Amino acid sequence: MTRRRLIQILLVALVLAYPLVVAGSPVWARLGALVLLAAIGASAWNIVGGYAGQVSVGHSVFFGIGAYSAVVTYTQLGLPPIAGAPIGMALSVLVAAVIGVPTLKLSGHYFSMATIAVAELVRVLSSTSEFLGGAQGLGGPPVPRSVLDLSFISATPYYYIFLAVLAGLLWLTHAIEHGRMGFYLRAIKDSERAARSLGVAAGRYKLYAYMLSAAFTALAGSLYLTMFGFVDPESGFGILISVKMVVMAALGGAGQLFGPLVGALILVPLEELSNSYLGGQGAGLTFVVYGAIILIIARFLPSGLLSLLERRRSAASRAAKTVDGHAD
Amino acid sequence: MVDGMVGATRRALAAVAALAAFGLGVSAQAQQVVKIGAVYPLSGNSASTGNYAKMAFEMGADIINNGNPELAKVMPLAKGGGLPGLKGAKIQMVIADNQGTPAAGQNQTLRLITEEKVAAVICCYQSGITLTASAVAERYGIPFLNAESVAANLTERGFKWFFRTTPVAADFAKAYSTFLNEQKAAGRKVDSIAIVHENTEYGNSVSSVLADAFAKANLPVTQKIAYSANSTDVQPQVLQLKEKNPDVVIFISYTSDAILYAKTMKELNWKPAILIADDGGFNDPAFVKAMGSVTEGLISRSVFASGKPGSVAAILDDLYKKKTGGDGLDDVSARVLQAFFVMAEAINNAGSTDPAKIRDALRAVELKPEQLVAGYDGVKFDDKGQNVQASTLITQMRNGNYVSVWPKARATHELVLPYKGW
Amino acid sequence: MSMTLVQVVVSGLLLGAVYALFSSGLTLIWGMMNVVNFAHGDFVMLGMYTAVMIWTALGGGPWASVPAAAMVIATLGIASYFLLVRHIMRGPMLAQILGTFGLALFLRYGALWTFGANFKTLPDDLVGHSFILAGIRFEGARVLAGVVGLLVTLLLHLLLTRTALGSRMLAVSEDATAAQLMGIRPQRMQALAWGMAGAATGIAGALIATFFYTSPTVGETLAIVAFVTVSFGGFGSVLGALVAGLVIGVVESLSAYLIGPVYKDVIVYILFVAVLWFRPQGLMGKA
Fold it and tell me: Among C26, C64, C70, which residue's Cα sits nearest to residue C46?
């Protein structure tokens, strides 16, 4: 067994056992679940934003659709909120097609700005909709009626549910990455014009990536709702939700399988802990620290934290090559 | 010799044990504190309000722990030396930031309950956050007291640990409609009413409740204008009002938009005969400071009116001014402070930090108006946890300060109409 | 057209000129470096606080606060360029979002920490009272802001298109390497662009403070407007930002008056997306 393999096994074991390790502390167990939930959102974003290079800053549209689908399933039909997840995913794919067709032909920052505008549009409209509870928002079941409501005191069940979803999503992303679509997406990201000239249907593949990404972002929204039991226009469609997905993926390393997870692993605990230790004093110290750390990482590692590993690996392989060269 | 040794050892052991016991006793006595958690918006768009609430909590804890002789005459808990019901245990406020998001509100409530081991939670200002945070307290079986969220559904969830001291939107609506009908009876024109409200939870919920109540009370709402609170310009709205020229305008606004409305109305030189501002931004000390001089005669609601010198409200108002460096108590800080004193009273009566005992004590709380800082008719909770004696005062801006003008029984000043403005 | 409608359009135009003013700084660096500054709204916010400080500490009106804010925010812009932007430009486009978002949070909450959460306002007679002209009411502070807004954006436009300095800056924005071969120092030009953008943003902030409230989170509100204005007009086109600002201002005012204030943003966003549908490079951007 190589050392790398050993480290991998240890990491997987740690991830699986985490809730048991911190069993005594509900706060730490919850932190684990929050990291995974954020990682699901950021990884979903990564499909279109990282791999295809289409930087959407309006993914809150899909997150909100997921959250609202779940809660409306409860308020209108009386079903467990999670039953709304497939509806939310389907609806998101549809909405992604409607938004994607006109906006995906925009380049670079124009696409980002158009997605912000669409997300703000949806946020404002949602706050005027009676059906969605207007600006007051909607709450899930106040007390769990059955286990299907997925409403638990302990965060451990959430942890494993989120872990399963994240694993599935990462597996799918991995499959795409190594399949034909991944190849096309990378080509589009490098140079759309070149990709088109090679016969890649760039528009179509960007749209596929966008719709897939939307579906999983909606799933993250539905899961958010089952855990927190409430959504309003700001916590569903707010611009901060979109920005956080982008920031997490970028911080870890966009367009890399584990980039968003690494980003979530840094940012979520940073946000929660700094709020726990500094938030009570008022004065916003939490965000001064949070902002400064993001700033510093961007300054020194503009390609994300995972670029550190890559740098080491490429240095190592360079070293190996030199040795080989000498052997020759 | 041996006997003597044994005896000596025994005596020594006994002495050590006694010392240990004494030491433990002393430290238990000295360290006994009751922790109360509070989760408020200390950052984000409502940070200003949250920080005023924080100062109210700190002042409240200071009064109970260190005493205030003047206040002690009317408030037994203000004698100092902590809570007499718990052998002088001091109150320690553990304040956390909900960042204006339901997620942070829930996370922090969980932390206060499980890590800080608070005996009770007072929370959260925004209704949506109160909804999510109280679900955590309910599951852990910790008393949860809400001081200022007005959404009606909060007390309709069948929760067993949820209490609310504040009046709700329907109470405000009733106060306004009674007030306006009295004005009509006194011969003033109340034939057209415009409701101008911001478009988030607060404005939307209050405006819809108001519209319903006015319809029932036969008061004609002729114009309803919704706008977004972070508008950069409110001229179009004021021009709409100017064109229809209603007799009464009711604003439901946050601070930033309240400031813009006051400025723009002056600028476009338009005013209605009766201008009502539903609390919110119009009661923010920043608004009063900046715009008080150009909104003479503005009618607002508040649970707080300073009242006669020597009253609980007046003394606390002075103390709060010292604490904040000039800003007196307002509607929100008074409701927060009131909730704090109710909680302190309940914990003291419970004589324990056991959550179930505190909850039972909360259910039994009964306070009279003269014991309150907020202008309620009293504090007494029903089965759903709602304070059934919660009520509101109607106030009017006079020389840059709000004074109470309604109901008659609690008025310190006569109502002066029409609205004077600048 | 009724008198009220004229009043609405006038207020929209004045608002639009202010939008143009606080967007011109953003479009300058956006166009020159293809960098989107997510902290732009917070630069405006600090400009506003500079004006508030000048008034509370020294009693100075816009004549003092405008140059002061221009200097403070220009310095901030140059410092941000050298300490942060220069480095993140080496990374992917995402690094800009990451870095400037971090900067935005840092500045916003640094301001909360320094100045407190309370809303601050300047006395409303600081710039002079409102006056009536041909039956239309004008507010002194807004007229001043609007006129200065027009002047500054036009000046920036002329500077970029009619001067040697401007063509050097544009050369850097089109091809930094080629510009370097021609003896232009790209870094110096880019730092200058950040300084100029900062100055325009500072002026905008100081003027907005005279009729708007100032609070640590006010930048958030203004930033989205600036983003829309800039991409509406076309990245890098100062004139485009001016036209877009005026269009957005009038559309906002008219739709707020005629349809309802809640829907004014909806109308603006729909218009914006529609414009991009037909002109993916914005109104005046280069294709």
Answer: C70
